[in-house]
């Protein structure tokens, strides 16, 4: 019996790059059954809602979702769709791996870093957001719980243990944010003692940013709070060629969503220009989550060979081809 997964094509370039990923998954023999649903601007135009009930039901029912980029309209009254999904389904762990691929325009050649970001607390929780009527001030609350901190730090160590990683670095700002970041660091130190076989380090976030640029080889697995994780994971993407080479997984107890982490790029939507690598890499994350390592390895090898050879690559990878040609190059290698 084939596994059914929910697929959200998304907005802008989303449908094109998701179609690319689905073709590749099929060619690799994954035999998934896809339930296609809408979210974002596409859903708003069709149903008047950014996240229709039918979409939420499909995510809950199937447990695993592959998602293209979504656009949240700018302006009051619209909550971030991604934040809403994380809250709705308790997707507490955001896992953002970055790996160097030969053939990209990246400055480094040997990057292999995973950022594990707490996904539901901190500044992204939306607590206490207030703007004065006269616009003279604004404020928001950041709340970190011991349970939330322990859950994400333990997730990072278990991931490191499972994948044979050597080091976990807890990134914080406890020197200034002594309450929230202080609690996170205290919990991180406590959990680290349970994993003596893994090297544990801690680093203030601004120092971590500098070190990532100067000596990225010092990092293996990074675990941090929501806002810092958002910033650091994008910085890490820059080390391997940009967000087009960076996938993301949002993991919860009962549901998981795998996604391209870049924007919907409406300026090139429908022009057959987008690099589908981010969502292809997200598909690989999904396969690893579903314990399908053979198919994951085949797709990664095919993708790496296309990028390294420059065969039909997109403009951001130094080529002159579009999404469909790039996809076909990967499909050709899977057929060998």
Short description:
The protein is 41% helix and 17% strand. It has two domains: 191 residues, Isopropylmalate Dehydrogenase; 128 residues, Isopropylmalate Dehydrogenase (3-Layer(aba) Sandwich), CATH 3.40.718. By secondary structure, it is α/β, with parallel strands linked by helices.
Give, in order, the helices and strands.
Answer: EHEHHEHEEEEHEHEHEHEEHHH
CATH topology-level name of the largest domain = Isopropylmalate Dehydrogenase
* CATH 4th-level superfamily of the largest domain: Isopropylmalate Dehydrogenase
* Low-confidence region ranges: none
Beta fraction: 15-25%
Rg, alpha carbons: 20 Å
Q: Based on DSSP secondary structure assignment, what is the total number of beta strands?
A: 12
Average pLDDT number = 95
Number of domains: 2
User: Given this structure, which CATH class of the largest domain is correct?
Assistant: Alpha Beta
Give me the CATH architecture of the largest domain, please: 3-Layer(aba) Sandwich
C-alpha termini separation: 26 Å
EC number: 1.1.1.41
Pfam families: Iso_dh
Organism: Idiomarina xiamenensis 10-D-4
InterPro entries: IsoCit/isopropylmalate_DH_CS, IsoPropMal-DH-like_dom
